[in-house]
Task: inverse folding
């Protein structure tokens, strides 16, 4: 368990001096606050009872504990959507795949209107959704319009500057990949062509 929040220590990092463990979430929260050093809040049981650890911890010195991580990843957990109705249990390492591909209570975004719906309801919604995405949605434009409307921001022509900026960002990213990772560039280009063909 994470000594900081008391929850399951996902991506556990252990303090070498005292052996207490912190999850990456707790450490990220400290980093966001600009805290680089803190007193360990773990507790030890000695002859005098429960006592807080006195170790001074430098965030930069913490390293992930692979042995603890393996044990945690094999721990059985309930689906995060249990309160919504999902009764599935799985190993923690299988949770991400369950949420991405199996859980019918996990929210997914409609490809037309960008609203979120449980996976079990998404297909029915998309079959009748009348919203239309901007033709530049594949490069990041979030404009959505209903039949007869020009769009939330005045249509394609009214957003020329925004669309050019989005295209430039995508092109710059692809050029960067092409320069340093040619295989990834070819794969990204192939995937982009498939997405483009699917829109026509």
Result:
């Amino acid at each position: 368990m994470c000594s900081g929040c008391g929850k399951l220590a996902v991506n556990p990092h252990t303090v070498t001096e005292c052996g207490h463990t912190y999850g990456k979430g707790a450490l990220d929260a400290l980093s966001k606050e600009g805290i680089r050093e803190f007193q360990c809040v773990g507790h030890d049981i000695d002859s005098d009872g429960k006592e807080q650890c006195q170790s001074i911890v430098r965030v930069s010195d913490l390293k992930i504990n692979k042995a603890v991580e393996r044990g945690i990843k094999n721990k059985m957990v309930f689906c995060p959507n249990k309160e919504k109705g999902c009764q599935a249990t799985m190993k923690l390492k299988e949770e991400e795949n369950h949420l991405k591909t199996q859980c019918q209570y996990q929210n997914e975004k409609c490809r037309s209107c960008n609203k979120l719906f449980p996976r079990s309801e998404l297909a029915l919604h998309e079959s009748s959704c009348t919203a239309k995405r901007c033709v530049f949605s594949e490069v990041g434009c979030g404009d959505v319009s209903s039949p007869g409307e020009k769009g939330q921001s005045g249509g394609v022509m009214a957003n020329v500057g925004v669309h050019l900026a989005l295209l430039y960002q995508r092109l710059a990213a692809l050029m960067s990949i092409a320069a340093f990772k040619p295989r990834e560039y070819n794969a990204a280009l192939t995937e982009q062509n498939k997405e483009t063909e699917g829109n026509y």
Q: What stands out?
A: The CA atoms of residues 101 and 119 lie 9 Å apart. The chain is about 35% helix and 20% strand. Confidence is low (pLDDT under 50) at residues 147-154.
